[in-house]
Each structure stands twice: as structure tokens, then as C-alpha cells.
Amino acid sequence: MNDFDFLVGSWDVANRWRTDFLDESSEWEEFPAVSHASRHFEGGANLDEIIFPTKDFAGLTLRLYDAERGQWSLHWASQRTGTLFPPVTGSFGADGVGEFYGDDTYAGRAIRARFVWSGITRDSARWEQAFSVDGEKTWVTNWIMEFSRR
After folding, report:
1. How many other C-beta atoms are found inside a 10 Å radius of the C-beta of residue 73?
2. Using the 8-state DSSP alphabet, how is residue 19 labeled?
3. Closest CA relative to residue 98, chosen from 61, 49, 135
4. Predicted TM-score of the model (pTM)
5. Are 122 and 6 in contact (CB under 8 A)?
6. Where does residue 79 fall: left (phi above 0), alpha (psi -120 to 50 degrees), or beta otherwise?
7. Residue 11: which of 144, 128, 126 has the closest Cα?
8. CA 95 to CA 92: how far, in whole Å?
């Protein structure tokens, strides 16, 4: 239940995202961010705000642990849209890697989203987002965040 305790605190975040989230040959764009995360519900909830100063927007992620299912749901909200996106759900494996999946739309197309948390240490972590438009046969990794503790 305390899987996201590592994230509590303040982080510098190096971001790379594709200029087209559905095109694996599109260029990567790099930009910074700062994230602040907090622990709630005795480890069963986690909330962070991430600010992208060069992009002029911010986002919030609420993570909730469902003890009955043994899974987390991750809910992203963007300042740009003022909406809460559909959640991705999943868990961490014995190897410490967390995989989370959900259905959404992007640019008017139905997509399957995947978030992967990996490389987690006291002072660093990696998050990746990928989209599939063909029922998980292929994935386009389109956003990578490298976290470094402040």
C-alpha cells in the first residue's frame, strides 16, 4: 500500500516528449519541471503537483490504493484542460517496476495508455508514458520523466 511513498518530497524533473504522441518517428522535445508530492491515508493515497515553467501549465496526479483489488488507480488532471483524465490502474511487481493501464482518447482516436514507474531509488525515479492504437500490439513511448530529488 505504500508503493508511492518514494515520491514524497520535491523533485526536479527532466522531461522528453514526442512532438506527435502517436508517431514513434517524431522528434523529442526536452523541458524542465518541478514536482511536489505528499502522502495521505496512511500511504493509501498520494498527491503531486508538477509545474512545467517553460510550457506555462501544471498538472496534478492523485493516486489511490484499492486494498480489495490490490491495485492503484492514477488520476491525472491538467491545468490546460481543467479536466480529470480517465485513470490508469495497476500495481508494482516484485522487481519494483509499476505498470498501469487505461483507456482514453488522443487527438480524437481511442488509445490504450500505459504508465511505467521504474529505476526507483531514494533520490531518483523514471516515469514513462506510451500509447497503443492497435489493442496493445505495439506501443509508442511518447513521454519520459527522469526525477531527481531536490
Report:
1. 17
2. S
3. 61
4. 0.95
5. yes
6. alpha
7. 126
8. 8
- Segment 100-106 long-range contacts (CB within 8 Å, at least 24 positions apart): 100/72, 100/74, 106/21, 106/22, 106/131
| CB atoms near residue 18 (< 10 Å) | 20
- Residue 30 C-alpha cell reads as 526536452
Name the DSSP class of 111: E
Dist CA 100 CA 78 (whole Å): 19
Cell for 9?
Answer: 518530497
Cα 132–35–49 angle (5° rounding)?
75
How is residue 23 written as a grid cell?
508517431
What's the average pLDDT block by block, 10 residues per block, for the chain (150 residues)?
A: 94 98 97 98 96 96 97 96 95 97 96 98 98 97 98
- In the structure grid, which three cell numbers stand for residue 75, read together? 488520476
Q: What value, to the nearest 5°, has the Cα angle with vertex 12 and ends 6 and 18?
A: 105
Which amino acid is residue 8, in one-letter code? Answer: V
Helix, strand or coil, per DSSP, at residue 73: strand
